[in-house]
Amino acid sequence: MGLRIAMLTTFFPPYNFGGDGIGVQRLSEALARRGHSVTVIHDADAYISLAGQAPAPVAPPVGVEVVSLKSSLGVASSLATHQIGRPIAHHETLKRLLKGVDVTWFHNISLVGGPGLLSYGSGLKVYEAHEHWLVCPTHVLWRFDRERCDAKRCLSCTLSYKRPPQLWRATGLLERQARKVDVFIAKSEFSRAKHREFGFAPEMKVVPYFLPDEAETAVAGAPAHDRPYFLFVGRLEKIKGVQDVIPAFAGEAGPDLLVIGDGDYAGELKRQAEGMSRVRFLGRKPPSALGEYYRDAVALVTPSLCFETFGIVLIEAFRRGLPVIARRLGPFPEIIDKSEGGLLFDTPVDLRTAMESLSLDPDLRARMGAAARRAYQRHWSETAVMGRYYEVLKDAAVARGDHRLAQAFDL
């Protein structure tokens, strides 16, 4: 039985900066492929206010209706929601769009409606925590833009980012609104534990990200690069930690480092790498172009300094049989341990040792790559993860006594 499902998110491609919007798109398309009617509602003004301009248009997701909210108030609408924690400009539109849906599914709602949005909609209510917004005004638990957060100093930290404090966080609004949600989803065991550590009381289920099954095709063609290389893929921001990797590529001997992505820290990283012939910045690449780079790399390096909620690039590498070298931080240890598809590092010496191990021992790299590929199929493929979603949603429907909905999620 197909259901009417509404997805609420601030960002959605092409009005999107990071992995959360892409994750919502993949989930929406997977639900549509399984016979559900899916509508995604996102806030175009929020993206434009941060990016400074509208994005280039892209093809709409297959089988999914997309509603882009726009207001004559523009950035003022986003600012009001940020401060008050409720939908302002789109109150009536949201009420109308969400009337009578079977599943109201909240994602990153920070600027599309804030915690006040959790009163909207009908049917089963699901909240999926792509970031740590539920416990952190800056979403990333990166305090004063210089260190990982280990205790709440939210007011001074928010001001250090030159952002106005969110007044609603001092009112208990989020705690009251959270009671209207049937099930909360975290993207990793680590993220669930971090939410609890920072005071989020409701139980959370864990459902990881996935990659679409139909995208699993072999990548053939000429080599992506003319020398052995390690690969970084992601936004170029201080919290992503690329600055800690670049020093390992000093000198002329050894593999290169290819950096795919862009961001506000790109200029600083390029200055750091001046005169280093083994470091190459390739800029942004569309997802369709990444396969050949994953295929030919020695390993993917993920050196994030902050508390990620997951790590989509890890499973992108695993799908191609590419091992990963990740910082021993956040969700990365649980992903590496589950996959046996990579190595962890703490220090610059650890990082160099891990890179030497994989570049000098092809058999080790092949074994880890094969393990990564098997683990991807078992834990992070669309088929595996959608099965987990259905289990969680069925349990939540049973708990609220809605047996019609529960039957819709029978595997």
Would you kindly provide a written description of the structure presented here, covering whatever features stand out?
The protein is built from 15 helices and 15 strands. β1, α1 and β2 form a beta-alpha-beta unit. The chain is globular and about 60 Å long. The strands form four sheets. A seven-stranded parallel β-sheet has the order 3-2-1-4-5-8-9, sandwiched between helices. A three-stranded parallel β-sheet has the order 10-11-12. α10 packs across α13 and α13 packs parallel to α14. The chain has two domains: 236 residues, 3-Layer(aba) Sandwich (Rossmann fold), CATH 3.40.50; 162 residues, Rossmann fold (3-Layer(aba) Sandwich). The relative contact order is 0.10. 36% of the residues lie in helices and 16% in strands. The chain is of the alpha/beta class.
